[in-house]
Amino acid sequence: MADFVGAVDQGTTSTRFMIFDHGGNEVGRHQLEHQQILPRAGWVEHNPLEIWERTQTVVRTALNTHSLAASDLVALGVTNQRETTVVWNRRTGRPYYNAIVWQDTRTDRIAAALDRDGRGEIIRRKAGLPPATYFSGGKIQWILENVEGVRAAAERGEAIFGNTDTWLLWHLTGGTDGGVHLTDPTNASRTMLMNLETLDWDDELLSFFDIPRAMLPRIVASSDPHAYGTTASGGPFAGTVRITGDLGDQQAATVGQVCFAPGEAKNTYGTGNFMLLNTGTEIVRSESGLLTTVCYQFAGEQPVYALEGSIAVTGSAVQWLRDQLKIIRTAAQSEDLARQVDDNGGVYFVPAFSGLFAPYWRADARGAIVGLSRYNTDAHLARAALEAICYQSRDVAEAMAQDSGVAVECLKVDGGVTVNELCMQLQADILGVPVSRPVVAETTALGAAYAAGLAVGFWKDTDELRDNWNESRRWHPSWSAQQRAAGYAGWQKAVGRTLDWVDVE
């Protein structure tokens, strides 16, 4: 009998394959980064073919390293960077253009036009999203309008769209030889094209972007024993594995953190930060700058919804210190450098490289470092970068409390940045509540595995998944209320300095 569940986790900076046992413990993994393509200011792209190549490599390497085969896996789940947009030819498998990444801001004029003429309010009501560069709809429109031949190919039914989950599912199941063209409601709800109530593509929303319906994948449940089919025998698994789970990365992390009850929340620290609050089967409309999104849908059940606060740049701000400023050699060194000082020395760093996401939604904002004096050092900047991660999360937590009426009492955290213990202490200090990290910090892949395993009965129900959850570490606030208030006031003042920097028509 197969003893494990596999999960492909296709993220913004890397792709990994992880293997879990019935206890939710990591059995093996392999991970590879892919290139960040920056053609001009505000543009961020990935090579879809490189992502597929990396996916094949991490799967083969993880299985070989641990002497496992496809037959050892009872099911496979997929999770992915959401909103990142791929358009390719279904006959040749070749992308028409690089993947346009969720951080990319080239569609700012498209988003602004939607808000000017009233279509934005319809998008908010039907899709639960504000018109923004973040989401897939504008990116598809840009490709249709700017890449030669794509519009005609789409009208012929040859050019098809997917976020990176759909791109990988298509390849994993055979590609040009019968690959499935599917997605799930969590990914579809990030496009500005899906109606939250019907869980289907909406013709009125499609008309706003002039997108042919035939380009879009079919939407099926996030956890389903039959819809996704099996891996192609000639692919990286060298055999057939049932694909039974598909979730956008932040929804997958919510499942991995076993936030199955309304009112339960988690915060994932990765390239960006993403806080999700389970609102149950009720669609809660945000009045405070949050997104209404699908949290997950299990086969045969009603969808579960969430409020989400999406922050564009958190961990990638540390990456910027490493790759652009070169004041650290590794991301881990940011903690050592920041510990050299007791506070930020009056320095605030607002990393609005892609504008500001939740709760501000200001495409006109750009990054700023404020409060500098000759006293300040690289250590103050490193600490300010870590504090920026935490202050942006507080902005979202404040908005979430306003919308839901429920204040966070303990924040469940996961993702790569949570290994930075100074950052997690700062998060507890800035929020004023305990911060709890689970034993398995990479809950995105775990959530995809859980969705896949539930579909085939590897885990019988969500209660069994709750039993797997264990705390690794908890941080308690150490700042006084006065210190917390003063720090947040400085942050809000710094955010104000970033606004109206770019003229958006």
Automatic annotation (TrEMBL):
Q: In which pathway does it act?
A: Polyol metabolism; glycerol degradation via glycerol kinase pathway; sn-glycerol 3-phosphate from glycerol: step 1/1
Positions that bind sn-glycerol 3-phosphate? T12, R82, E83, Y134, D249
Binding-site positions, glycerol: R82, E83, Y134, D249, Q250
Q: How is its activity regulated?
A: Inhibited by fructose 1,6-bisphosphate (FBP).
Task: Cite the EC number.
Answer: 2.7.1.30
Q: Which residues bind ATP?
A: T12, T13, S14, T271, G315, Q319, G416
Annotated residues that bind ADP are located at T12, R16, T271, G315, G416, N420
Recorded coiled-coil stretches? none
| Family annotation (InterPro entries) | ATPase_NBD, Carb_kinase_FGGY, Carb_kinase_FGGY_CS, FGGY_C, FGGY_N, Glycerol_kin
Its Gene Ontology molecular function terms? kinase activity
Please tell me which top-level EC class this enzyme sits in: transferase
Q: What reaction gets catalysed by this protein?
A: glycerol + ATP = sn-glycerol 3-phosphate + ADP + H(+)
Question: Keyword annotations for this protein?
Answer: ATP-binding, Glycerol metabolism, Kinase, Nucleotide-binding, Transferase
Query: Which branch of life, at top level?
Result: Bacteria
Annotated ranges, domain Carbohydrate kinase FGGY N-terminal: 6-256
Q: What does this protein do?
A: Key enzyme in the regulation of glycerol uptake and metabolism. Catalyzes the phosphorylation of glycerol to yield sn-glycerol 3-phosphate.
Q: Which PANTHER family match?
A: GLYCEROL KINASE, SUGAR KINASE
Record family assignment: Belongs to the FGGY kinase family.
Protein name according to UniProt: Glycerol kinase
